[in-house]
Amino acid sequence: MTVQELISFGTMVGIPAILGVTWLVTSLVRTQTMLSQMEARMVLLEANIHSIRNSLQAMSLTLARREHKDKKHEEL
Fold first, then answer.
1. CA–CA distance from 55 to each of 27, 51, 66 (Å)?
2. Of the candidates 52, 73, 55, which has an alpha carbon nearest to the alpha carbon of residue 63?
């Protein structure tokens, strides 16, 4: 093989390989960004679920106390 053939072969193999690696790295970075965003949304969603659960629990306790007071007054 001559030097020119080696350069030609290197170009035929090297450029697609470099483009492939570049595409792969770009795709991985995008995927990582999307996963980070999803994780942030899940943390926010979890906080909202806890808040809703706490509010429902407080409302349930309030209603239970109110019903207990009403029954106590009816007995008197």
1. 42, 6, 16
2. 55
Tens-binned pLDDT, residue by residue, of the chain (76 aa): 799 988 998 899 999 999 999 999 999 999 999 999 999 999 999 999 999 999 999 999 999 888 777 666 666 5
| DSSP string across 6-67 | HHHHHHHHHHHHHHHHHHHHHHHHHHHHHHHHHHHHHHHHHHHHHHHHHHHHHHHHHHHHHH
Which residue do the tokens 């995927």 mark?
A: 31
Q: What is the distance between the alpha carbons of residues 36 and 25, in angstroms, rounded to a whole number?
A: 16
C-alpha distances in Å from residue 12, one per residue of 2, 5, 8, 20: 15, 10, 6, 13
